[in-house]
Amino acid sequence: SKDAEEEYLKAIGNINANVRVFSLEKIKFIEGKTGKNSYEKSEQSEFKKLKPQFFIEYNNKLQAFNHINDLIKIFPNKKEELKNYSKTNLSKFDNTADVTKLQKFLESLL
User: Fold this and answer.
1) Residues 57-97: pLDDT tens digits?
2) pLDDT score for 71
3) Could you please report the per-residue DSSP string of 28-56?
4) How far apart are CA 53 and CA 55, in angstroms?
5) Residue 82: is it exposed, middle or buried by C-beta count within 10 angstroms (0-12/13-18/19+)?
6) Strands lying side by side in the sheet with 61-65
7) What angle do CA 6, 4, 94 make, to 5 degrees?
8) Measuring CA to CA, which residue among 31, 36, 27 is closest to residue 8?
9) Span 20-29, pLDDT tens digits
10) What does DSSP assign to residue 77?
11) 24, 65 contact by CB (below 8 A)
12) Rounded to 5 degrees, what angle do the CA atoms 79, 80, 82 make?
């Protein structure tokens, strides 16, 4: 039995912005198992969506980010603003709504 993983890059938020944000979506196929006898359970095959990886495109560079410190490396001259943003918004960058909000904030800074 083989498990397979597919991934695709998806633009999120405002695609015409100066700071564009992308999500690398991953979906894993987990093959089911047939019980060998009446005591062993059978499991159905399933598709499982994994945690997305986010990327930011600015000045024609695509860079991954998971944490506010990653953004500070990308925008070092906006360090204080980014730290203040992270304190008030408590974003873990694990969903597209938070990342879209972040994109709007970055647009307002630049």
Assistant:
1) 998 999 999 888 999 999 999 999 999 998 888 667 778 88
2) 92
3) EEE--B--SSTTSPPB--EEEEEEEEEEE
4) 7
5) buried
6) 4-12, 20-30, 46-58, 61-65
7) 50
8) 27
9) 999 999 999 9
10) G
11) no
12) 65
Backbone angles phi, psi at 63, to 5 degrees: -130, 140
The tokens 């709007």 sit on which residue? 104
Strand partners, 65: 54
| Helix segments in 1-110, DSSP class H | 68-74, 79-89, 96-109
Phi, psi of 80 (to 5 degrees): -65, -45
